[in-house]
Amino acid sequence: MSLQYFPAVKPSAIALGTVFNHATELAVMTPLFGATYKKAKASNSKEEFLKSQEATSTAIAWGSALVGSALQSYGVGALINATGTLSYKGSAYLGALIFAATSAPGFINSLFVEKQTLEVIGVGALAKLVETVGLSVVLTWWGTRTGPFDYVNTSRGTPLSRNSFRAE
User: Fold this and answer.
1) In a domain, 40, yes or no
2) Minimal CA–CA distance to 24: which of 141, 124, 96?
3) Which residues, including other chains, have CB under 8 Å from residue 168's CB and lie 6 or more apart?
4) How far apart, in whole angstroms, are the C-alpha atoms of residue 47 and residue 44?
5) 74 found inside a domain
6) What Cα–Cα distance (Å) separates residue 157 from each residue in 5, 57, 135?
7) Residue 93 domain boundaries
8) Which residues have a Cβ under 8 Å from the Cβ of 83 and sit 6 or more positions away?
9) Strands (DSSP E) found in the chain
10) Cα 60 to chain centroid, rounded
11) CB 12 within 8 A of CB 74
12) Membrane-spanning residues where (predicted)?
């Protein structure tokens, strides 16, 4: 597997997207951190708390959310670059497509199969919409291309329509 087929994304865009996405994830995971804070206050010592199940699960949740946020930021930035998206409207559509492909089936399942309440589904859907549509718009605002002259000549189509194996 060669890395040359992965689109380059500006590292600062990945960092900004990671912070944006991680903040959204933390808003959803706040109840977990609230329980951890209560356990830390109730424990007699710092060592006792660090050995507790709540501390371990919180550290794992925080770390995996951080890594997931970074990977999602790169993925959305790479899609923005690969599709040649330059406008906020285009990035919002791209984010909506990402939401529809990744999250919508789970919410439909939660609504009709698991019969969860609309409030729970609505909060989850809103958080995922912010993660997908919001992230793509923020990354478009910041800029994801590594070079200042990437995609200047748009008369040749989008980057996905170009064939890298033929001479142009």
Assistant:
1) yes
2) 124
3) 156, 162
4) 9
5) yes
6) 18, 48, 25
7) 10-146
8) 90, 94, 158, 159, 160
9) none
10) 18
11) no
12) 12-37, 58-80, 92-113, 120-142
